[in-house]
From TrEMBL:
One of its GO terms (molecular function) is magnesium ion binding. This is Fructose-1,6-bisphosphatase class 1. The gene is fbp. CDD domains: FBPase. Binds 2 magnesium ions per subunit. Substrate binds at D120, G121, S122, S123, N213, Y244, K274. It is found in: Cytoplasm. The keyword Signal does not apply. It catalyses: beta-D-fructose 1,6-bisphosphate + H2O = beta-D-fructose 6-phosphate + phosphate. NCBIfam families: PRK09293.1-1, PRK09293.1-3.
Length: 334
């Protein structure tokens, strides 16, 4: 049972038994993410002070300018997960292909793979808006001790064994689930310890915040336009409040605490949406459902989508159950 002010380390040990058949590997994996989060947090928090902002001069597979912090965060998480010899494979939103970890080494009996978006929303860094790290953990499906293959990474989201995010905001929080609800831990930077500050986080059944980039309105499908009009109607429970930070982790986190819906739909310019299924939508969908919310592509459950490539994009409607259901009704009837 989650107890307020418990440290993350104590929480992991206390809940070790919940990780069915785990040899403690998943605990060690969460611990390594905790370490990397503290290291990246230190750099994010001083980004304005040193010349670590500004495009690194390269672009990632998404064709996006890589901010130096993007590169730094990517290296730190990959290095931490590799050095501790905890996983057999890593895929990053910043990298073209997945990384096999000592797969040819028979002794590598590790059974987990990690997919990571090391610094989501990084375009907000140089305007001092919070950014986040998103991670997703699966068991490999190919035999232990053999090289991981693309199939290990193209599993449906409903095969995740854990997922979470770090939000580097006014305070730094690690929010994650291993399938037994969602718990939020806040970092005390003075001593470098995460404390359980938000036990058993849940979406309210409905809410009054909708998060979507309305600048794309002209390019939205009819169902999304009609849902936005519904949110803006003068009724007893509306108009809703529009809040959009432009940083998925921050928008999701606020809606998880206050209730709401985050939407990044398909548009005429981006027919499959913008967000990546493996690195953003599946982990956030896992958390949404663990927190009694929903996550859909407008028609089907995000976590039922069979991935076909590492960097594929899907539309996403996620958050409070009744709000996602209402949005789906508009999508269905459009
Ligand atoms: P737009 C950041 O690049 C991101 O992936 C999410 O964190 C964020 O919600 C979205 O894209 C913002 O996209 O097109 O509204 O700027």
């Amino acid at each position: 049972m989650a107890k307020k002010n418990q440290t993350l380390g104590e929480f992991i040990i206390e809940n070790q038994a919940e990780f069915q058949y785990s040899s403690g590997e998943l605990s060690r994996l969460i611990n390594s993410i905790r370490l990397a989060a503290k290291v990246v947090n230190h750099e994010v928090n001083k980004a304005g002070l040193v010349d670590i902002i500004g495009a690194f001069g390269e672009t990632n597979i998404q064709g996006e300018d890589q901010q130096k912090l993007d590169v730094y965060a990517n290296e730190k998480f990959i290095q931490t997960l590799t050095n501790r010899n905890i996983v057999c494979g890593i895929a990053s939103e910043e990298n073209d292909d997945f990384i096999a970890i000592n797969s040819l080494d028979e002794k590598n009996q590790n059974k987990y793979i990690v997919l990571i978006d090391p610094l989501d929303g990084s375009s907000n860094i140089d305007v001092n808006v919070s950014v986040g790290t998103i991670f997703s953990i699966y068991r490999r499906i190919t035999p232990v001790g053999t090289p991981v293959t693309i199939d290990d990474f193209l599993q449906k989201g409903n095969e995740q064994v854990a997922a979470g995010y770090v939000v580097y905001g006014t305070s730094t929080m690690l929010v994650y689930s291993t399938g037994h609800g969602v718990n939020g831990f806040t970092l005390n930077p003075a001593i470098g310890t995460f404390y359980l500050s938000h036990p058993n986080m849940e979406f309210s059944e409905t809410g009054n915040i909708y998060s979507i980039n309305e600048g794309n309105y002209a390019h939205f499908p009819k169902g999304v336009k009609n849902y936005i009009k519904y949110c803006q109607q003068e009724e007893d429970d509306r108009p809703y409040t529009s809040r959009y930070i432009g940083s998925l982790v921050s928008d999701f986190h606020r809606n998880l605490i206050k209730g709401g819906i985050y939407i990044y739909p398909q548009t005429s310019k981006a027919p499959t949406g913008k967000l990546r299924l493996l690195y953003e939508c599946n982990p956030m969908a896992y958390l949404a459902e663990q927190a009694n919310g929903l996550a859909s592509d407008g028609f089907q459950r995000i976590m039922d989508i069979k991935p076909t490539e590492l960097h594929q994009r899907v539309p996403i409607f996620c958050g409070s159950r009744k709000m996602v259901e209402k949005a789906k009704e508009f999508m269905k009837n459009s």
